[in-house]
UniProtKB/TrEMBL annotation:
Keywords for this protein: Oxidoreductase
Enzyme Commission code: 1.14.13.208
Gene Ontology MF annotations: oxidoreductase activity
Protein known as: Benzoyl-CoA 2,3-epoxidase subunit BoxB
Tagged with keyword Oxidoreductase: yes
Entries under InterPro entries matching the protein: Aromatic_CoA_ox/epox, Benzoyl_CoA_Oase_BoxB, Ferritin-like_SF, RNR-like
Organism: Streptomyces marispadix
PANTHER family found in the cross-reference section: 1,2-PHENYLACETYL-COA EPOXIDASE, SUBUNIT C, PHENYLACETIC ACID DEGRADATION PROTEIN PAA
Gene, per the UniProt record: boxB
Gene3D superfamilies for the chain: Ribonucleotide Reductase, subunit A (1.10.620.20)
Length: 473
């Protein structure tokens, strides 16, 4: 087997020499049927013959993926860790400079397991949320992208399950089982994080989810990539490579929604594009407001002693830790976090360690702004005046310092009564959702596309837009 390559001769493709640990191999092979049953019952509901999918075959910088038509039920989910750096040392916290751990330190076992379980729980959740979207795909190109996201989220579940089985014994195996027993939106056993229990009933929601919520995933994986526990670090490093496509789907999907709406506004000299079967810009903004604010909650409270402890222990670092110009211990540093100050939205100074959630959230916000700039450039180039904006960090928050207040998108604090009176101007209404859903009519013909979205500028892996990306059953 190549140093970095995946061994596809095994029942579970892997690059971790699974055959060398027969007990672990048997445990994972016993979990595999449960995973496949979950995929059949909770995965994509649209019947297909095969899909033009990317499959990981290596973890190197070049040539790591193979493209080809695959029956989704036969997709080879596997376990892939980035190449090990044998000289790697922990880059932060109390253990800074020590060799990275190849085994779980006993004193950090519970915390590491919890971090892995929470990350693992998000992966199947998004598949469940997107289960029925195939039935309303605007093109075969988009349908293929949906299925690519789905199979890779399934593989990311495998990545976390491997760590639980390999390093956490019986408790890890039990947690791996629970990852398949919780379901998005379930009353009895919901997913752990709120955003992963929200509905994704239409493709505008899907594009917003893959832009905003998968971008949160990027930043969470980025902090875990810094972990002193080397197998977790290597796992997340490779997951980030796959995650990039998910955010590409969201970024370019919203690009194309805005392009189509802008084109119809110009061609018909009207803002009333609903009459023309497109999505009005103000509705796009409302969806943006919702998905962005829900995703902000995923970063947790503005201050957190748990995250401070994770950092000091070397379990979870900062985004791009190696680029930070400080001592990477932060014991004597302070940081300004967002806070409610005398009833107004402001900031307060706290110990840097307890402000790490805010630090990460701000990195995320800056990244989100890049997409807004893209979409505004489309409007600017079209000669249109409207502009998209990220709402205030206090808008529509259910977690953290602003959970107990209501604020407008520009950050003005409102009474609960005023919020109820005005919220429909900022968040999708039932009528907005019904209208967007009314546009979701499937276009499954080769080279055709729905009227509410522009075609992509290029296809996948050098293929044209009218390529047969999906063969339906």
């Amino acid at each position: 087997m190549p140093v970095n390559g995946a061994d596809y001769s095994e029942k579970i493709p892997n690059n971790v020499d699974l055959r060398e640990d027969r007990r672990l191999q048997r445990a994972l092979e016993s979990w595999q049927p449960d995973f496949l049953n979950w995929w059949e019952s909770m995965g994509p509901s649209l019947p297909t013959q095969d899909v033009y999918l990317r499959t990981a075959v290596d973890v190197g910088r070049e040539g790591w993926a193979h493209f080809g038509h695959v029956a989704m039920k036969d997709y080879r989910w596997g376990i892939f860790l980035a190449e090990r750096d044998r000289d790697r040392r922990i880059g932060f916290g109390a253990h800074k400079g020590e060799p990275a751990w190849q085994k779980v330190p006993g004193e950090y076992r519970a915390d590491l397991q919890r971090l892995i379980v929470i990350q693992g729980d998000t992966e199947p959740a998004s598949v469940e949320q997107q289960r029925n979207l195939g039935a309303t795909a605007p093109s075969l190109y988009d349908l293929r992208n949906l299925f690519q996201v789905n199979v890779e989220e399934g593989r990311h579940l495998w990545a976390m399950v491997y760590l639980l089985h390999a390093y956490f014994g019986r408790e890890g195996r039990e947690e791996a089982e629970e990852l398949l027993h919780r379901n998005s939106g379930s009353d009895e056993s919901p997913r752990i994080l709120g955003a992963f229990n929200e509905e994704t009933p239409d493709w505008l929601s899907f594009f917003m989810f893959t832009y905003f919520t998968d971008r949160d995933g990027k930043y969470q994986l980025g902090t875990l990539k810094e972990s002193g526990f080397d197998p977790l670090s290597r796992t997340c490093e490779f997951m980030l490579k796959e995650e990039a496509h998910h955010m590409f789907v969201g970024t370019t999907g919203i690009d194309r929604v805005v392009e189509r709406t802008a084109r119809l506004m110009i061609d018909h000299d009207t803002d009333d594009v609903a009459a023309l079967g497109a999505i009005p810009l103000d509705v796009v903004q409302k969806y943006l407001n919702f998905h962005y604010s829900v995703s902000l909650d995923l970063f947790g409270s503005e201050t957190s002693s748990n995250v401070a402890n994770y950092y000091t222990a070397g379990l979870k670092g900062r985004w791009r830790e190696d680029r930070r110009k400080d001592d990477h211990r932060l014991t004597d540093d302070s940081f300004l976090v967002d806070a409610l100050v005398d009833g107004e939205i402001g900031t307060t100074e706290v110990a840097a360690l307890v402000g790490l959630n805010t630090d990460l959230r701000r990195e995320y916000i800056g990244d989100c702004q890049s997409g807004v700039n893209r979409w505004n450039k489309i409007l600017e180039d079209a000669g249109l005046a409207p502009r998209f904006r990220l709402p205030s960090v206090a808008f529509n928050r259910k977690v953290g310092a602003f959970a107990g207040i209501e604020a407008t998108p520009d950050g003005t604090v409102l009474s609960p009564q005023e919020w109820e009176r005005r919220r429909d101007a900022w968040l999708p209404t039932d009528a907005d959702k019904a209208y967007v859903c009314s546009l979701m009519r499937p276009v499954h013909e080769r080279g055709k596309i729905a009227g509410w979205i522009a075609p992509p500028r290029r296809g996948i892996n050098g293929q044209p837009f009218d390529y047969e990306y999906v063969h339906l059953a």
